[in-house]
Amino acid sequence: MAEIGSDIFKAAKLLASGEVIAIPTETVYGLGAIAFDLVAVSRVFEIKQRPFFDPLILHFANKKSAFAFFKSAPADFEKLANYFWPGPLTLVAEKNEEVPDIITAGSSLVAVRVPNHPLTLELLEIIDAPLAAPSANPFGYVSPTNPEHVQDNLGDLIPYILDGGPCKLGIESTILGYKEGKIQLWRLGAIDKSAIENVLGYQIEELIAQNSKPDAPGQLDKHYSPLTPIFLTTQMEMESKIANATSNEFSDVAVLFFGDLPDTVVAATSFQFNLSENRDLFEAAHKLYAGLRQLDRGGYKEIWAVLLPDFGVGKAINDRLKRASVKE
Ligand code: TXA
Ligand code: MG
């Protein structure tokens, strides 16, 4: 079991001595190592069982130290960083020579962000080095949004979980890349595209990565997935399936939904998890991973997830649900 505590000096000491620890951010918990400690960084991949071709985000205390690791970046990245940092925005651009290849999976690009969590910002100040940190979950599994989630999955593999409470946002950062002179949206996340476009004053293209495997272009990766099979549905589809059922075939099904659910669906299924009674998309993002984890522990045969309104952060939630439902 890992120790769970909020001692940033202890966390800094462990990192400095080459350990990998869990750190809180406003999005999800990260599995952090000092970016220049190549042994510790390779332990991050090992602990997560993450393939080495999947690059890591570097976390910094402020914009100045983050941009120092870019060889070049578009001027508009500065504008976005000024507006959204500290916050759930990751920027990807040409790296300088200081960034180890293991971090970027050999790519000439590096991903950086300044997370918005007071404990982690203080920790970054103390260690005075970037932290390489992917989400603190086993590769492919549901991301962690509180210390217990990390303990459940990785507690035996790390010494310390820096306890920053439940993550405020609960969904990963939005990732922007830069290609052929244009800023592009590479991962849907906590900040939605229109908010970015409002700051930029122009529209950007979506080039959402289907997967991280260089040899499987276009194929959607299974990711963010509970062990229980998860299926996407709509209220209407669920209602009609239940109306046409000949037996109580849904009695072992748990439903993840948003807002309200028809009485017939409630009666026919085993358990229902409401992401937000008031149809608040931010509340839904905040509860998403905890909800999936709770349903996964319930021993149900299947999870049915009702897709959310496809705008704002709802788009990022639907993206995670789609990936979670990919069957191998
Ligand atoms: O909110 C977040 O971003 C969280 C917290 C902990 O900061 N981190 C996170 O990391 O979601 P992770 O490792 O689960 O996802 C990072 C993704 C990679 O899978 C990849 O898609 C993209 O970031 N990425 C990282 N470095 C990249 C690079 N050099 N080029 C392109 N994409 C990169
Ligand atoms: Mg992740």
Task: Give a written overview of the molecule.
The protein is built from twelve helices and 16 strands. The chain has helices spanning 8-16, 38-48, 63-67, 75-84, 101-104, 118-127, 147-154, 193-200, 235-243, 263-268, 281-297, 313-324, and strands at residues 3-5, 21-23, 30-34, 57-59, 70-72, 89-95, 109-113, 131-132, 160-162, 174-179, 182-187, 205-206, 230-233, 253-257, 271-274, 302-306. Strand 11 (182-187), helix 8 (193-200) and strand 12 (205-206) form a beta-alpha-beta unit. The longest helix has 17 residues, at 281-297. Helix 1 (8-16) packs across helix 6. Strands 2, 3, 4, 5, 6, 7, 8, 10, 11 and 12 form a ten-stranded mixed beta sheet that branches. It is α/β, with parallel strands linked by helices. The two termini are 31 Å apart. The model has no long low-confidence stretch (mean pLDDT 96). It binds threonylcarbamoyladenylate and magnesium ion (MG).
What are its keywords?
328 residues; alpha/beta; 10-stranded mixed beta sheet; 12 helices; 16 strands; 33% helix; globular; binds threonylcarbamoyladenylate; binds magnesium ion
| Overall pLDDT metric | 96
Treating each run of at least 4 consecutive H or I residues as one helix, how many helices?
12
Distance between the termini: 31 Å
Look at the helices and sheets and give the structural class. Answer: alpha/beta
- Cα radius of gyration in angstroms: 20 Å
Sheet with most strands: 10 strands, mixed
Helix-strand pattern: EHEEHEHEHEHEHEHEEEHEEHEHEHEH
Q: Could you say which small molecules are bound to this protein?
A: threonylcarbamoyladenylate, magnesium ion
